[in-house]
Specification:
This protein is an alpha+beta fold. The chain folds into 2 domains: 128 residues, 3-Layer(aba) Sandwich (Thermophilic metalloprotease-like); 203 residues, no CATH class. It contains 10 helices and 18 strands. The strands form 3 sheets. Strands 12-11-10-6-5-16-17-18 form an 8-stranded antiparallel sheet, covered by helices on one side. Strands 2-1-3-4-8 form a 5-stranded parallel sheet, with helices on both faces. A 5-stranded antiparallel sheet has the order 7-9-13-14-15, covered by helices on one side. Helix 1 packs across helix 2.
Length: 338
């Protein structure tokens, strides 16, 4: 591609890009940065690169289509090599079906070399102008208060207007993590940030997914407000699912049968980005909505301490929750009480 500096971008992207580079990643002039993007997202990458130019850091932008045919299960060697020699990285690209393995390869290098990594899968201009404009210092404050409560709780009970009835148990051996948008070497984070999560010890009940489902399916199906996916869970495994959208039901069922743990709850999370008020049909932002999301599949074992794995990970978002940590009510109709 041409020099990233020659790509014209909407000035409305500047505030979100500045937040990413200066607040969330705190990039310094002496640091080396890797930016991974694709043809569809190059305008956003250009806005991020422009902010890095202001700082004076060394960086390189990789457009995936310049190196590999997509969808790809392999992250190109040239990109992984540059990553391994960087301090900071940004992945700002769209997710295509079957590409999760390539992103796992990328984050493995991020974890190994302890990069501060911003994961912006399926980032859009709308998200740059909404979730990425949040006050991430405030988001971090409420995330810190919440994780202090949940990390001491033995269980969480949650109900929603849509009909969710969840009972979630936790183990002191499994870590809670905070990804509030302030990214450190300890855990790469999605941007926009705003969630706390763990791998639960056990989950039972009904989860009404009236927000969105994740991975490539999010773009395909968007908001599930009118056709919620209803998931009955027993001992952390999917027991039964129903949905008026039969195509979604079939596709999600196949996805959660990929391997022996694809139908197991790997992540339990509470969104904390209080700048967000409603679902927009994009998992990257919608999972940060003050609400509950759970993922079936990979439990982020390298961070949570879970002793199992999966080749898949699909986040599912519900809306309008009431949440009790043990006996303390922390949320009512999507609003924090702490």
């Amino acid at each position: 591609m041409a020099d990233i500096r020659e790509v014209v971008f909407d000035p409305e992207l500047v505030q979100g890009a500045g937040n990413a580079v200066n607040v969330c990643l705190r990039i310094k002039p002496e640091e080396r940065v890797t930016i991974i993007t694709d043809n569809e997202t190059v305008e956003i990458a250009a806005s991020l690169a422009s902010e890095i130019d202001r700082i004076g850091s060394e960086y390189k932008v990789f457009v995936l289509e310049d190196y590999v045919k997509r969808p790809t299960k392999i992250m190109p060697h040239e990109i992984l090599d540059h990553l391994s020699k960087s301090n900071v990285s940004i992945f700002a690209a769209q997710a295509l079906q079957g590409e999760l393995p390539s992103r796992v390869q990328m984050t493995a290098v991020v974890n190994q070399h302890k990069l501060r990594h911003a994961h912006m899968v399926n980032i859009t201009k709308t998200i740059m102008m909404q979730g990425m404009r949040a006050d991430f210092m405030e988001v971090d404050e409420i995330s810190t208060r919440l994780i202090d409560i949940t990390s001491k709780a033995k269980s969480i009970r949650a109900t929603s207007k849509g009909g969710s009835e969840l009972y979630v148990e936790f183990s002191p051996k499994l870590n809670w993590l905070k990804t509030s948008g302030l990214i450190t070497v300890n855990k790469w984070g999605n941007l926009p940030g705003g969630e706390i999560f763990t791998s639960p010890a056990n989950v039972n009940g009904r989860f009404v997914v009236d927000g969105v489902v994740g991975d490539y399916m999010c773009r395909k199906y968007g908001s599930l407000k009118d056709t919620p996916l209803i998931i009955d869970i027993k001992d952390s495994r999917i027991e039964k699912m129903t949905c008026d959208n039969q195509e979604l039901l079939r596709e999600f069922t196949e996805y959660t049968m990929t391997d022996e743990n694809s139908n197991r709850v790997g992540e339990f999370a509470i969104g904390t980005n209080i700048a967000l008020k409603e679902v927009i049909g994009n998992i990257l932002q919608d999972e940060k909505l003050p609400s509950i999301h759970m993922a079936f599949g990979h439990p982020y074992a390298e961070h949570t301490g879970a002793d199992w794995s999966s080749t898949t990970h699909n986040d599912c978002v519900g809306t309008h929750f009431e949440i009790w940590a043990d006996d303390l009510k922390v949320m009512e109709d999507g609003k924090f009480l702490i």
